[in-house]
Amino acid sequence: MRPDVVLRLVVRTFSEVCLTAGTLIVLFVVYVLLWTGVKADRAMDGEMARLRDDWAAAGAPAAEPAPDPAAAPGPAEPARYPAGQAFAEMYIPRFGKDWNKPVLEGTGTELLKKGLGHYRGTAALGATGNFSVAGHRRTYGDPFKDFPELRTGDAVILKDATTWYTYTVRGGPLRTVPTDIGVVEAVPRKSPFTVPGRYLTLTTCDPEWGHSHRLVVWAELTGTRVVGQGRPEGLPS
């Protein structure tokens, strides 16, 4: 076969391989950016619907006073929520008036495709200790895409069957490594807090499209309201 024919064959084959590889890359990017988001949004909507149905089916709970943020903190105890199940909703006004996500018990890979994950062994909502939550920054609905925008004074609002809990950001975002588990201790290390209290820790991946590090924000409980008394200040009615 003549050398020029061989050369044309090689160039054509190489071009076809590059075109195929490029198509596969584009399809993968579409999957990561779009399809995982569609699936995650559906899963989160499903979790929220199930959670609200459960609350409605249970009826109005016995009236109990909402936790008082100003009361002296008692001993820290780990929460006891059913593994893998949604038990609360989170609202962060900084992320937009329509931003709200379910919070599930656990931080496994599959759970974080359906919402935010509560670190098992950390505190319950409103309780003494550190209520700690993880979420994806990118893919699977991008729940914490705007995490670096959080600022001191921002509200992070959670709701369970009986109570609204308003936490106010006091520190972060801090960049650390995934093995730095001290950031979710009862009195979180590297946080502004030095004594027991009612705290919230939020974590997500960094860099935006990687997972070599973590971004961390800390908040403390500053307000509570019984669900029947209406939504907290800062949330649209």
Structural features, described:
This protein is of the alpha+beta class. The chain has one domain (52-229): Sortase (Sortase, Chain: A), CATH 2.40.260. It contains 1 helix and 8 strands, in the order αββββββββ. Strand 1 (86-91) and strand 2 form a beta hairpin.
Poorly predicted tracts of residues: 21-31
Query: What Rg, in angstroms, do the CA atoms define?
Result: 22 Å
**Which superfamily, in CATH terms, is the homologous superfamily?**
Sortase
Number of domains: 1
Task: Tell me the strand percentage band.
Answer: 25-35%
Question: What is the gist of this entry?
Answer:
The protein is of the alpha+beta class. A hairpin with a 6-residue loop joins strand 7 and strand 8 (213-226).
Notable features of this structure?
237 residues; alpha+beta; Sortase, Chain: A; 8-stranded mixed β-barrel; 1 helix; 24% helix
Q: How do the helices and strands line up, and which of them pair or pack?
A:
Elements: H1 3-58, E1 86-91, E2 100-105, E3 116-118, E4 129-134, E5 155-159, E6 163-176, E7 198-206, E8 213-226
Parallel strand pairs: 2-3, 4-7
Antiparallel strand pairs: 1-2, 1-5, 3-4, 5-6, 6-8, 7-8
